[in-house]
Amino acid sequence: MTKIALITGATSGIGYATALELASKGYNIIATGRRQERLQVLQEKIGTDKVYQLVFDVRDKEAVLKAMASLPQAWQQIEVLVNNAGNAHGLAPVQDGSLDDWDAMIDINVKGLLYVTKAVLPLMQAQGKGHIVNIGSIAGKEVYPNGNVYCASKHAVDALSKAMRMDLVQQGIKVSEVNPGLVETEFSEVRFKGDSERAATVYQGYQPLQAQDVAELIGFMVTRPAHVNLAEVMILPTDQASATILNKQQ
Ligand code: NDP
Ligand code: 8X3
C-alpha cells in the first residue's frame, strides 16, 4: 500500500521541497498551507491522484480539526507527519518587539504544531505506528541577538520533540527533530515583511543551505528501517559554525 505523508507548510521552501522529495520516494502527500494556488501547483507537479490538498491556518484549531476530519478514508492512514509550517516575524530587541509578531510566532510555531499533531495522532495510534518529524532550528539550540521570541518558539519545539518522543515511545510512533541552520527560502522575506532586499542580505557572502538539502535529510530519516529513529539532526551550511558565526567573505 502506498504510504501517506502529511506536510504542513507545503506551499514554500522546506515544506515544498519535502513534498517533492517524499513523492519521489513513493509517498502520497497531504499538502497543507494557506495559499491554495500553490498547493494546486504542487499537486499538478506531483500528480493529481498523488496529492490531497488541505487548506488551513495552523493557528486556527477549529480549522485544523475540521480539515483533518474532512479527510477521505483513503487518505487517513498517515504514516509520516512533517510539522514544518512556521516562520520568524520580525527581528528586534525585546524592548522594541511587536506583540503581534510575538503572538504570530508562538501561535504558529508552537501552538500550530501542537494542534496538527493532536489531530493526526489518533490516525497513527489506530495503525500502531507513525513518524513525526518536527522542524526545529539551530535557533532552538542557541539564541542570537534580536531573535528572542523566534528562538523561544524553536526552543519550545525542541522541548516538545523530546517530550513527544517519551510520550509516544510505547505506541510505536517515532518522533524526530530536524534543526537546520540558514536555509535560503522565503523565510527572511516573511521575517522582514516582504522587504526582499533586506531578506537577500541574509544569504549574501556565503553559501546557505537550499530547501532541497533539508528535504533530502527528511527523506533519509523517514526511510530508515522500522527499528531505527534518527531522533535529532542539526544540518548547517558548511559556512556556518553557530547561530552567530558565519564564514562570510564580504
Ligand atoms: P518559508 O517561508 O519558505 O515557508 C513557510 C511555510 O510555512 C509556508 O509553506 C507557509 O505556508 C507555512 N505557514 C506559515 N504560517 C502558516 C500558518 N499560519 N498556517 C499554515 N501554514 C503556515 O520558510 P521555510 O521553508 O524556511 O520554513 C519552514 C520551517 O523551517 C519553519 O518552521 C522555519 O522556522 C524552519 N526553519 C527555517 C530555516 C531557514 O533558515 N529558512 C532554518 C531553520 C528552521 P502559507 O503561507 O501558504 O500558509
Ligand atoms: C532559522 C534560522 O538562524 O535565522 O530558524 O534563526 S535562523
Summarize the topology.
Elements: E1 4-7, H1 13-24, E2 28-33, H2 36-46, E3 51-55, H3 61-69, E4 78-83, H4 99-127, E5 130-135, H5 148-168, E6 173-180, E7 183-184, H6 187-191, H7 196-201, E8 209-210, H8 211-222, E9 232-235
Parallel strand pairs: 1-2, 1-4, 2-3, 4-5, 5-6, 6-9, 7-8
Residues 9, 11-15, 33-35, 57-59, 84-87, 108, 135, 137, 180, 182-183, 185-187, 190, 211 line the site of NADPH dihydro-nicotinamide-adenine-dinucleotide phosphate.
Give the CATH class: Alpha Beta
Q: Look at the structure and name the CATH superfamily.
A: NAD(P)-binding Rossmann-like Domain
Basic shape: globular
The strand count comes to: 9
In the CATH hierarchy, the third-tier topology is known as Rossmann fold
Strand order, sheet with most strands: 3-2-1-4-5-6-9
Average pLDDT = 98
- The helicity comes to 40-55%
Query: How large is the count of helical segments?
Result: 8
**Computed structural class:** alpha/beta
Low-confidence stretches: none
Integer count of domains: 1
Q: Tell me the fraction of residues in β-strands, as a range.
A: 15-25%
SSE ordering: EHEHEHEHEHEEHHEHE
| Terminus-to-terminus distance | 52 Å
CATH architecture: 3-Layer(aba) Sandwich
Present as ligands are: NADPH dihydro-nicotinamide-adenine-dinucleotide phosphate, 2-hydroxyethylsulfonic acid
Main beta sheet, described? 7 strands, parallel
Pfam family, one: adh_short
GO molecular function: oxidoreductase activity, acting on the CH-OH group of donors, NAD or NADP as acceptor
Family: Belongs to the short-chain dehydrogenases/reductases (SDR) family.
Protein name: SDR family NAD(P)-dependent oxidoreductase
